[in-house]
Design brief:
The chain is mostly helical. The chain folds into 2 domains: about 110 residues, no CATH class; about 270 residues, no CATH class. Helix content is about 70%, strand content about 0%. Helix 10 packs across helix 11. The longest helix is centred in the last third of the chain and has 54 residues. The protein is elongated and about 130 Å long. One of its GO terms (biological process) is phosphatidylcholine acyl-chain remodeling. Its main location: membrane. It holds the Pfam family DUF2838.
Length: about 475
């Protein structure tokens, strides 16, 4: 039997000779290094009389040296004959290991070390935060992209109304003004209630509402008034129609506010087109004699009559709104003048109006500019009155323009809302990642004083988070 086999046999003579030596070494170690000894587990620090088996699971590093012997024994006297140089290298390794573990112990007194359990806890916390952000993102997107039952119902009614308008114009044009009245009665109370509620009540005194009221007066109370018809036709085919372009009215069918604004600006020109060009002559002469007796359009007369009705509106507006409600306007209530003054502040006309020293001068300049815009837009009224197809093409163009603005609203506005929510989610994830890196950088295990052969600890990445909660 070889010497190695004899040593590995339990109860052999070599084992009995090693026991007193090991016990004396333990006593001497406790006496010399009592203040700097590292607390070890009883199972790992106990030394039995049996053979010493080297296991990789008991090792702190990748070395094959047993740490229990490295830390407890003052030298490596295992009963083997080793040279002084080997003994010196072993003692240096022991000293370096003791210093490193002592440093870890001192750091643990200052910082709470991130052990395996804390890493798992931090992973779970990060996962919960990430899943919470994703849940909130889904709710926000659903809230912004989904419509209520009221909006869905109004969308269906708007499509039905447009279909009915085309059907009535083609089949029963004599009832189209009645159809207009029905829509007017349904939408205007809602508009009045909504604008008073949100503080836009002064918008109800704008020119577009004034023109709609004049049209109702002509249809149902003064169908014989030629001056009223000329003024309504000029204002409706002029300022009201072009306002769809300048004010970007959008035909968004599921929003009652947008659809009502389109109705206010598009419906009067369509109704006047039907009255002038689609009604039978006998019915026109009986129901709207002012239109039947007007053979040709007098451009100068149209400007004069339109200017009179326009002046009546401007004087009434400034008296009851600009003067009587001055305090409310100064407190922040919005009017069309204050809105356009702020919106067009960077344009040439806006800079000119805002540069005037007094408010009354700014209002006067704004009124004259608006009047000049009205005269400019009514230049084409003789053409719209005389030629049916030209008038029909113009009205169709205004309707298509409003529909295009509505499509832009659906694509751009909803797309921007979704893009905004995605960017918010990205920012929240970045903040979570920064928080995770901050926690890792504060850890004592991430300090730059490790040796070159140490393996650095990798910070937690968002990709490491499981898809499902454990």
């Amino acid at each position: 039997m070889s010497n190695l086999e004899q040593k590995n046999q339990p109860g052999s003579q070599s084992d009995l000779e090693q026991e007193p030596l090991l016990e004396s070494n333990l006593v001497r170690k406790n006496e010399l290094d009592q203040d700097t000894a590292i607390e070890e587990d009883d199972d790992s620090s106990s030394i039995s009389s049996s053979t010493y088996t080297l296991n990789r699971s008991d090792s702190f590093s990748s070395s094959f040296i047993d740490l229990s012997k490295l830390l407890i024994l003052p030298d490596f006297d295992f009963g083997l004959q080793v040279g002084d140089s080997t003994r010196k290298r072993f003692n240096e390794m022991k000293s370096k290991t003791k210093q490193r573990l002592k440093q870890f112990k001192d750091d643990s007194m200052k910082f709470k070390p991130i052990n395996s359990s804390s890493n798992i806890k931090r992973n779970l916390e990060l996962q919960d935060k990430l899943l919470s952000k994703l849940s909130h993102f889904d709710k926000r997107v659903s809230r912004n992209l989904q419509s209520s039952n009221t909006e869905k119902f109004f969308y269906a009614m708007a499509v039905f109304s447009i279909s009915m308008a085309g059907f009535i114009i083609g089949k029963y044009p004599t009832y189209f003004h009645v159809f207009h009245l029905c829509l007017f009665v349904m939408l205007m109370p809602i508009r009045f209630y909504t604008y008073f509620k949100i503080g836009f009540k002064f918008y109800l005194a704008d020119l577009c509402y004034y023109v709609n009221i004049l049209l109702m007066l002509f249809i149902w109370w003064f169908p014989n008034s030629e001056s009223l018809f000329i003024s309504v036709f000029s204002l409706a085919m002029g300022t009201l129609s072009f306002a769809v372009i300048t004010w970007r009215n959008s035909l968004v069918l599921h929003l009652i506010e947008k659809t009502t604004s389109s109705f206010i600006h598009i419906m009067p020109p369509i109704t006047l087109f039907v009255i002038v060009h689609e009604l039978p002559q006998d019915y026109l002469a009986e129901r709207f004699p002012a239109v039947a007796t007007l053979d040709h359009w007098n451009f100068i007369g149209g400007i004069i009559w339109t200017s009179i009705y326009y002046t009546i509106w401007q004087v009434t507006y400034h008296y009851f709104i600009t003067i009587k409600r001055k305090e409310e306007i100064e407190k922040g209530t919005v009017t069309s003048f204050t809105y356009l003054k702020k919106k067009n502040s960077k344009s040439a006309l806006g800079k000119f109006v805002n540069s005037l020293p007094y408010t009354w001068m700014q209002i006067t300049a704004f009124t004259l500019i608006q009047f000049g815009y009205q005269i400019l837009t009514m230049v084409f009224c003789p053409i719209w009155f005389k030629y049916k197809h030209a008038c029909g093409f113009f009205v169709t163009f205004i309707f298509v323009w409003a529909s295009y603005n509505g499509a832009t609203y659906y694509i751009d506005v909803f797309g921007k809302r979704f893009e905004k929510e995605v960017n918010n989610l990205k920012n929240e994830i970045v903040l979570l990642k920064q928080e995770n890196e901050k926690l890792f950088n504060n850890s004592p295990f991430n300090k730059p004083n490790m040796e070159n052969d140490d393996i650095p600890i990798k910070p937690l990445e968002l990709s490491d988070v499981n898809e499902e909660k454990p």
